[in-house]
Each structure stands twice: as C-alpha cells, then as structure tokens.
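If your schedule permits, I should be very grateful for your opinion on a structural question. Please examine both parts with care and let me know of anything in them that strikes you as inconsistent. The record follows directly beneath this note:
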Amino acid sequence: MAELPMLRDAAIGINIRSGLIEYVGPDSGIPAKQLSGDPEILDAEGRLVMPGFVDSHTHLVFAGNRADEFYKRASGISYAEIAAQGGGIRKTMESTRSASRQELFELAWQRYLRLLDNGTTCVECKSGYGLSVDSERMAMQVINDLARKAPGVMQRTYMGAHLIPPEYADDRMTYVQQVAAELQHYAEGGLCDFYDIFVDPLAFSQVEAQQIVDRGRELGMKLRLHADEFGDDGTAAWAVANAAVSADHLGGIGPGGISALAASDTVATLLPGTMFFSGHGEYAPARQMIDAGCAVALATDLNPGSSLMYSLPLVMTLAVLEMKMTAAECLNAVTINAAHALGLAASLGSIEIGKRADIIILDCGSPDELAYQVGTNLVSDVICGGEVIKRHGVMFI
C-alpha cells in the first residue's frame, strides 16, 4: 500500500486576521513575524494535522423523522411498500412544509454542528424536501441563514428538482417549468451557488431535466446532478455534456459514463453511505473509475431517508471495504477532490500558503487510521478560517 506524503516536525503559521495560512514547513523555519507579540500556539505533537474535511453532498434542511423506515427496510419491507404506506420522501416533504423557518433552521443547525464536531469544515447543503415554490424558497432562506452563521464554508444548492411532488403527478411538465422559472429568482438574488437535479426514472427524465438545464445555462448558473444512481441511464455522460461541476451517486454507471467523466472536469462524487444505510442499490465502481482517470470525491449524502450519516471517516471506511479505494485516495476524496467538486479548490481543501486555515488535529499519528478506527471520532481540534472551534474535544460554538 502506497504511503501518504507526510511532513514531520512541521509547523503551520496562520494569520488570524485574514484567516489564511501564511507558513507551512519545518518548525525550525517559522518566520520571526509569526512568533512576534504573543501568538497562540497549538501543540499537536504526535498527532495528525490535516485539512478539514469537505462534505460536498448533504441535505441538511428537513423536518420530521423516518427512523421507523430504517427498521422496516431491515425487516425486508421494500421502499415501494414504505412509500405506498405514506413514507419515503413524501413523508419528509409533508413535515418540512409544515415546519416554520425557525424550526427548520434549528434542526439544520444541530446537524451542521455534528458535522463540524466530526471535522467537516466545508459543507454543501441542498434544498429539495419542500417541493413547492414557497417551501423551497423557505428552505433556501434557511440555507442562507446557516451560511451566514456557520464558522466554516457552506455552499448553497437549490434542488427543487428532487422529485415530482404528488400534486403534479399527472401534470409533470408544469412542475418542470415551475422549477426552471424559479432559477431566475435564485440567480438574480444571489441566493445559491448551484442547482441540482435528480435525473432518474424515479424522478426526472433527461428530457425534463434538459429544460431546467437550458434555463440554468442562460442564467449562468452552475449545475450539479444526481446521476446513474440505480442503473446506467447515460446520465453521467449527459452531465459531462452539460458541463456539470459534479455528478453524484453513480452506483449504476457504465463504461461510457466512466470514459466521459475521465475525459472531463466533472468530478465523480460517490456516496457509499447511501447503499450501506438504505440497503438499496449498488456501490459505485470506484476502482474502475479511478484507474480510468476520473476525479473522485466522497460525501455523506446526509439525509433523513437513505443516509443519516455525519462522519466522513465512516464514509472512508465504506469506500475502502466496498469500493476498494486506498487510504490516500480516500483522503484526497474528502479534501482536495471534494473541494474541486464545489469549485473551491483554489481556496481550501489542502494545507497551502494562501488558502483558508481550515485545519483539523486528530488523536492518531497516521491518516491510515481514519478509515481503520471505525465509528470513532478521532477529531480533537477544529480550526475554521483561523478560528479555533473545537479544542481537546470541546466545542466552542
């Protein structure tokens, strides 16, 4: 197994006014200006220091609880049967629509803090559980509220095209046109960084999605896609053709999709926690994808139905066991590659001079232990933009 590059007896100098990294190198070579005055020194001797995790696919904003479905699936009841009983996304949609903006914010904020406690310093957050004009707008207001309060970086994604809501089951095109029309509201108001579409036989066809994408292109918006989740629908290649920043899930991707991604700038964001948690679908063929030259990121897909998961190291464990990724590949996938999946690699995702000081310190000596120590939160300290948010296991927020 190839070793990860590591710098020992090293130091990182942070400008606390700018929140940026000013020095990376041997501890014997720290510039005098870094030691002038009364600098705060965090001693991480014997421990691992690395970039904060970047979670590039989450659904933080929702209300309600679907724990009962978790146990129903485990007992053999299918998702279709659960949905017929009033469960599934429809149940979350009803709970989300009935919640207030403050209720949604408080629920999402607590979820965000759990991510932060697990070392995630940059998060992408989607709407998509309201599925009406008003409820989606409220969800995006909540996401913007979160982005203003969060000490880390939060990327905002409008996902009105998550599913066709029940009231439009017999008039799908009207809902598609509604979502396409809503893009202007988010673009002109600067209310989102991306928009996302679930392209799948269970959700939106490529023909339907193309109407939304064409409008997004006119508005200069950046596209993300849920693609080829349960089968080879050709959506990964379609994502590349439409210049998507990221194509996510990809459990059913075929050779054509892999080739298209490998020859593109579109990042393949894989979500093994979804298959683990839901027991549905196939793990993405990460080994084939990486060997072909695809840029691969990993994310939690934190959501109420198929992956209520907060730990990227646990995702890494699944990536090693089920998708045959190496420790180095996993580490890249939850840092710099995930930053590329959000278009942020120039400013975060690695420890380099001039980048944001988003740094975590772990109670272990090697990155190999991240996936190996299963179910343990090894993150002792979290620094976001130069600010210490967690120290010796205690959160200060």
